[in-house]
């Protein structure tokens, strides 16, 4: 196995190169790597994989990204399982982030690494601000006389954690097959529902066998028909998503139904269903159905639904199906219906165009775990952004404490973690910061990079509440430290704010930048000397990430 990162590496042979980060080397990566090995054999050249030394997202956002595998481990997996012994590893740095997409192909892949054929995924993005895409890659390869393969979505997702929490392309295919199968057997239906817990395997790219389908649907379920009112259908969907986004076997994979789950609202549990451990919904508050069978949803309309015999009998959370006015079993095994659908309706080909990705049938509005952050609060979206992007967490697992102030020690710790928690080069210079303090490294790092000074030469005051202008000043210095563009605020006029006279002289450039960049969204007052509450900090950090950090996103991105 050879890991190549030296630009002066002698006499590299021509290669077929695939491009991606390959963390974990999952099944999607496998399709890229198998195609690379295949093309290399055909052309008689070296198969190679191109990757980076760290997550592009980590560099761009400054937020640490936990990895499943190191570069060396990725290389070993790629060699052992896919026969690709050469791995090109490039540092992902500012030069890489800002490299024009054409140079990424011509200067890096072709000139430096001598690629004669490139293999990429259908959602591959590359170059500065992700301006390169699969179509541009194809066109550039054609102009340069290079070969190019773009790999479509490579599998039908039946992963347990996925089919029980959100829509997947395999759930789409199975429920489409139920609609088709009902029609083929003389029953026109409006929609189909099956439970994610009944889907037990992923179908990999390649030939689909009866064994594959039997593995996906191992329970011998049969195609059943129920007729339910819109109200009964809504009850079934509400009950079967009561804990979403947490996993539940009854999660409804659907065809012909478009619905939304509002995860910010709690499930209003009523009585336990007869013979069940699940509670009926007392009220409907989480699920909204937009349409059924292509028509606007109506509570009073009677809908004909294709499902499986388990759900028709009230299995999982589907008691509303058990009590349907019409309920009968067609007696046709589901696996046969799905296989017949693929062979007959799809002409034996499950294409990326049809099932490359999950559709737009199910929308999930994700909530926060914090009981003290009201979804109607003006700062809710900022807290949500920081939480989901691992920037700024709660005080406990369930409490954010939005009105609590943040201390000087906590502030620099947030930025230190955003920067990847680097080891400081120098010892902590402040006598009031204990060597065992959780923020000692962060303070030492902040001081040596001149992001903040102490209260005195020897005192940092880590427990002191930080003011809004102090926070924004440190954030401004951090932006400069990272090399971000801070020129937007240089000419910003803050004299119109009623309390501009309270801004410390040291903080004027930072406050101008904060207002001009949109980090500080103030209307009348800056309130510079007020202590910064945690909700304010979340707003500042969310705005900073979205408006100041360069828009280039993680690249490249494999299928």
Task: Describe what you observe in this structure.
The C terminus is likely disordered. The protein has 3 domains: 152 residues, HUPs (Rossmann fold, 3-Layer(aba) Sandwich); 197 residues, 5'-Nucleotidase, C-terminal domain (5'-nucleotidase,  domain 2, Alpha-Beta Complex), CATH 3.90.780.10; 168 residues, no CATH class. It is globular and about 85 Å long. 43% of the residues are buried. By secondary structure, the protein is of the alpha/beta class.
Notable characteristics:
Rossmann fold; disordered C terminus; alpha/beta; six-stranded parallel sheet; 559 residues; 20 helices
In total, how many domains does the architecture comprise? 3
Instruction: State the strand order across the main sheet.
Output: 1-4-3-2-5-6
Tell me what portion of residues adopts beta-strand conformation. Answer: 15-25%
Q: Using only CA atoms, what is the Rg?
A: 28 Å
CATH C-level of the largest domain = Alpha Beta
Architecture of the largest domain in CATH?
Alpha-Beta Complex
Unreliable spans: 552-559
Oligomer: single chain
Mean pLDDT: 89
Number of helices: 20
Fraction in helix: 25-40%
Instruction: Provide the structure class.
Output: alpha/beta
Task: Describe the structure concisely.
34% of the residues lie in helices and 17% in strands. By secondary structure, the chain is of the alpha/beta class.
List the helices and strands and how they pair.
Blueprint: E1 2-4, E2 15-19, H1 27-43, E3 46-52, H2 56-61, H3 71-82, E4 86-90, H4 94-97, H5 101-112, E5 115-121, H6 134-144, E6 147-151, E7 155-156, H7 160-163, H8 169-184, E8 191-195, E9 203-204, H9 210-216, E10 222-229, H10 230-239, E11 252-255, E12 257-262, E13 269-272, E14 279-281, E15 287-292, E16 295-296, E17 302-308, H11 309-312, H12 319-322, E18 326-333, H13 334-345, H14 352-355, E19 362-365, H15 380-388, H16 408-418, H17 440-448, H18 468-482, H19 508-517, H20 534-547
Parallel strand pairs: 1-4, 2-3, 2-5, 3-4, 5-6, 8-17, 12-19
Antiparallel strand pairs: 7-9, 8-11, 10-17, 10-18, 12-15, 13-14, 15-16
């Amino acid at each position: 196995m050879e890991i190549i990162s030296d630009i002066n590496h002698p006499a590299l042979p021509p290669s077929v190169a695939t491009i991606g980060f390959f963390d974990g080397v999952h099944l999607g990566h496998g399709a890229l790597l198998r195609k690379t090995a295949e093309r290399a054999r055909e052309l008689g050249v070296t198969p190679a994989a191109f990757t980076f030394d760290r997550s592009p997202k980590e560099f761009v956002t400054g937020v640490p990204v936990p990895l499943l595998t190191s570069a060396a481990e990725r290389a070993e997996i790629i060699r052992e399982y896919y026969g690709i012994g050469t791995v090109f590893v490039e540092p992902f740095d500012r030069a890489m982030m800002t490299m024009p997409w054409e140079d990424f192909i011509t200067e890096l892949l072709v000139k430096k690494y001598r690629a004669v054929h490139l293999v990429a995924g259908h959602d591959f993005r590359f170059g500065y601000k992700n301006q390169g895409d699969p179509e541009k890659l194809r066109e550039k390869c054609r102009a340069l006389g290079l070969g190019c393969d773009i790999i479509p979505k490579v599998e039908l997702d039946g992963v347990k954690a996925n089919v029980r929490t959100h829509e997947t392309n395999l759930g789409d295919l199975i429920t489409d097959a139920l609609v088709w199968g009902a029609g083929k057997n003389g029953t026109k239906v409006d929609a189909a529902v099956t439970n994610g817990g009944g889907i037990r395997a992923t179908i990999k790219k390649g030939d689909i066998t009866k064994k594959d389908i039997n593995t996906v649907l191992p329970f011998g379920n049969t195609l059943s028909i129920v007729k339910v009112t819109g109200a009964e259908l809504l009850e079934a969907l509400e009950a079967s998503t009561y804990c979403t986004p947490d996993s539940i076997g009854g999660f409804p994979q659907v065809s012909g139904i478009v619905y939304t789950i509002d995860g910010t609202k709690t499930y209003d549990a009523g009585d336990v269903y007869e013979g069940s451990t699940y509670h009926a919904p007392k009220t409907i508050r989480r699920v909204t159905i937009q349409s059924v069978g292509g028509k606007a949803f109506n509570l009073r309309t009677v809908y004909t639904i294709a499902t499986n015999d388990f759900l028709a009998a009230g299995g999982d959370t589907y008691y509303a199906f058990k009590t349907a006015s019409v309920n009968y079993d067609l007696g046709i095994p589901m696996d046969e219906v799905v296989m017949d659908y693929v062979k007959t309706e799809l002409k034996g080909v499950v294409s990326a165009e049809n099932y490359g990705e999950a559709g737009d049938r199910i929308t999930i509005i994700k909530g926060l775990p914090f009981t003290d952050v009201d979804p109607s609060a003006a700062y809710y979206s900022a807290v949500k952004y920081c939480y989901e992007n691992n920037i700024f967490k709660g005080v406990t697992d369930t409490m954010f404490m939005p009105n609590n102030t943040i201390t000087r020690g906590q502030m620099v710790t947030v930025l230190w973690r955003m920067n990847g928690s680097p080891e400081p080069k120098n010892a902590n210079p402040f006598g009031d910061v204990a060597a065992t303090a959780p923020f000692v490294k962060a303070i030492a790092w902040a001081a040596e990079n001149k992001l903040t000074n102490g209260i005195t030469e020897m005192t940092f005051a880590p427990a002191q509440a930080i003011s809004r202008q102090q926070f924004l000043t440190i954030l401004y210095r951090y932006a400069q430290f990272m090399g971000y563009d801070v020129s937007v605020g240089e000419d910003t006029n803050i004299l119109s704010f009623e309390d501009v006279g309270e801004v410390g002289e040291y903080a004027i450039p930072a406050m101008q930048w904060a207002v001009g960049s949109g980090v500080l969204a103030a209307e009348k007052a800056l309130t510079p000397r007020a202590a910064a509450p945690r909700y304010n900090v979340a707003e500042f950090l969310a705005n900073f990430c979205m408006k100041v950090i360069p828009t280039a996103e993680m690249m490249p991105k494999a299928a």
